[in-house]
TrEMBL record, chain B:
Protein name: ATP synthase mitochondrial F1 complex assembly factor 2
Domain of life: Eukaryota
GO CC terms of this entry: mitochondrial inner membrane
Gene3D superfamilies per UniProt: ATP12 ATPase, ATP12-like
Length: 114, 270
């Protein structure tokens, strides 16, 4: 029981720093977030006894922040892929339909509004 | 428009009048859309906001800057509502709470809703000593007045900023119950989002999906929910104040497993 509690905060800290490095690049250690996260984890000393309330709070917050960083990064890259250049917005309707395995019905005589 | 060219190099935070924190973009101080000086009550919130601005590249993607958006909402209060109005708006979602509405078919989904949502329902009824219940009829369950009163009281214990965040989480998850579970740390963001999207996930497993659209929706909901949750927790108390109090209280005492965090109320007003 105590082993999992001591591993989890270190893991959370490490994963957050990984995310910061992914979004910020080489200068990530100079970012306000890096300093703050390191500070938080240093000040919350992990004892071998039952995880106290403040440590549970820290873990939940760290987990939320990690989720925020990861999901924002993924949302952004998906947005770029599907809303940016060469994306569905620039493709014709026919191409988009084919992407999802459909085909537009043919309409002899053309559509009324063309 | 949702994007703008990045116009600064360095992002930093600084402490201003009355101990609030400000965000500096190069030498300019960030302002709200309403023209106010952008200020937050503690360093943790300031850091989270600063990071959003710090990681932007050539163009500013405002639709990913949820912490900033939430602070702007709290500062500008564009809908001009007070706490009571926000509480009633939040409670209204209880009547159409996602986990209260059960399907009658297909059997797979019926069972999934039971397995995944019943435990959360049990948890909240026990935790708050209320009756809520779920229903498969079109009108949904009838929520007893006592239940609403209990939640009303609980919501009132949050300060205006935290309430802004909490209402946001509720609108994202479409569930008061899941939001409470999240804020009370019974659920993680990922779990709360999964529970909120249970029916979609079920349909996807059965019928397949347009993968990118599903993933896009999932990541977007996660990022908004995570931001809202963090916003509530960081607004509920001054982070540095709490740490100082804990250090004073815990360390002089002998270490016993039974010691819990004493005296501090969960949501102090700032």
């Amino acid at each position: 029981m105590s082993v999992s509690f001591t591993v989890a905060p270190l893991r959370a800290c490490r994963d957050i720093l990984k995310e910061l490095r992914a979004v910020k690049g080489p200068g990530y250690q100079r970012s306000p977030a890096y300093r703050y996260v390191m500070d938080q984890f240093r000040h919350n000393r992990i004892t071998s006894e039952k995880l106290c309330r403040s440590q549970q709070d820290l873990l939940h917050r760290a987990s939320s922040y990690l989720c925020l960083l990861q999901s924002t990064r993924l949302h952004l890259s998906l947005h770029a892929e599907y809303h940016g250049e060469g994306s569905t917005r620039e493709k014709g309707l026919g191409d988009v339909a084919r992407m999802v395995g459909l085909a537009l019905p043919t309409q002899p005589g053309g559509k009324g509004w063309e | 428009s949702t994007e703008r060219k990045k116009f600064y190099q360095d992002v930093s935070i600084s402490q201003g009048e009355g101990g609030v924190f400000e965000i500096n973009l190069d030498r300019r101080k960030l302002k709200t859309p309403g023209g106010k000086l952008f200020t937050v009550p503690n360093e943790a919130l300031a850091t989270a906001v600063a990071t959003e601005w710090d990681v932007q590249r050539d163009t500013l993607k405002f639709y990913t800057m949820h912490m900033t958006t939430l602070c702007n909402t709290a500062l500008d209060n564009p809908t001009q509502r007070n706490k009571d109005q926000m509480i009633e708006a939040s409670l209204k979602y209880l009547e159409t709470d996602t986990i209260c509405y059960r399907v009658e078919e297909p059997p797979g989904l019926v069972q999934l809703q039971k397995n995944e949502w019943d435990p959360v329902m049990d948890w909240i009824e026990k935790r708050y000593n209320v009756v809520i219940g779920s229903s498969s009829n079109i009108m949904g369950p009838t929520i007893p007045e006592e239940t609403k009163d209990t939640f009303r009281q609980h919501l009132a214990s949050y300060n205006f900023w935290a309430l802004t965040g909490l209402e946001y989480v509720i609108t994202q998850l479409k569930s008061v119950i899941l939001s409470f579970g999240l804020i009370d740390q019974h659920l993680t963001v990922e779990k709360a989002v999964q529970l909120s999207r249970l029916e979609e996930e079920f349909q996807i497993h059965h019928w397949g999906n347009v993968e990118w659209a599903h993933e896009y929706d999932l990541q977007e909901l996660r990022s908004r929910t995570a931001a809202g949750t963090l916003f509530v927790h960081l607004s509920s108390e001054s982070a540095t104040m709490k740490r100082k109090l804990l250090q004073d209280l815990e360390f002089p005492l002998p270490r016993k497993p039974t010691i819990k965090t004493p005296l501090l109320s969960k949501h102090s007003h700032h």
